[in-house]
Design brief:
Layout lengths: L15 E6 L5 H13 L3 E6 L1 H10 L7 H12 L4 E3 L17 E7 L1 H9 L5 H12 L3 E5 L6 H12 L3 E2 L13 H16 L15
Parallel strand pairs: 1-2, 1-4, 2-3, 4-5, 5-6
Bound molecules: flavin mononucleotide.
Flavin mononucleotide binds next to helix 2 and helix 4.
Length: 211
């Protein structure tokens, strides 16, 4: 068995992680991230927005229909278990600073959800969970996906970074020489894992270009 490659960013990994899947393109990133978080032993909380359900079903070619069935099929694809919350369940535990998870990730993050978080105008549980992470000083990682980006998008993302979020666009690097699309997906998921402080072997660290 090949030993895991060392992570390039060690850190203190959170015990509980809330993952919000919004309606941006990038379902494979969410699958890989949730799989990696589950394998790393994180206690997972998950909420998929209504548009996220539509995108997951389309991009993963799921035969399931309806939010609960699509979310279950997504978790099955990821090989993970999670406490699942409806997107409008604003009374759920992740909505309060007194019962919030250790870290929040929105992957992928639509421009709509990014704007709502940046404006402090939470309309869904994932927006509120992100808002709580910021106000409580806990890690918030957003994985925006849109192109091209307007000045409006860029301003909202800057506001998120200024408020303490890690803005980690779904931009795979090619210095690790991905051989497959999955390798490129893994690169983005690995960057999120690093940002959260998890060791991982999703892509090899830069070797100085000597390989
Ligand atoms: C197939 C599909 C792909 C989409 N891709 C993106 C995208 O990459 N980025 C984005 O910001 N919005 C994208 N959208 C639009 C969002 O889903 C839409 O703005 C929605 O209102 C976002 O709501 P949410 O943030 O609550 O999930 C996409 C929509 C669909 C149906």
């Amino acid at each position: 068995m090949t030993p895991p490659r060392p992570s390039n960013v060690p850190g203190t990994a959170p015990g509980s992680v809330f993952v919000g899947v919004s309606g941006a393109s990038g379902a494979p990133y969410a699958v890989r991230l949730v799989r990696a978080l589950g394998a790393a032993g994180a206690r997972l909380q998950l909420s998929v927005s209504e548009s996220g359900v539509q995108v997951l079903a389309h991009e993963l070619e799921l035969t399931a229909a309806g939010r609960e069935a699509v979310t279950a099929a997504f978790l099955e694809r990821a090989g993970a278990t999670a406490q699942v919350f409806a997107p409008d369940d604003l009374g759920a535990l992740p909505a309060s600073g007194s019962s919030a998870p250790d870290a929040v990730v929105i992957c992928p993050c639509s421009m709509s959800t990014a704007a709502h978080i940046a404006l402090g105008a939470s309309r869904t549980l994932m927006q509120r969970a992100a808002d709580v992470a910021l106000k409580e000083g806990r890690p918030l990682v957003v994985v925006p996906r849109e192109t091209p980006l307007t000045a409006i998008h860029l301003r909202r993302l800057l506001e998120l970074a200024e408020a303490g979020a890690v803005v980690l666009p779904a931009m795979p690097g090619f210095y690790s020489r991905p051989q497959t699309l999955q390798d490129a997906v893994d690169h983005v998921a690995g960057k999120v894992m690093s940002a959260l402080g998890f060791a991982h072997d999703l892509f090899p660290p830069w070797d100085g270009g000597r390989a």
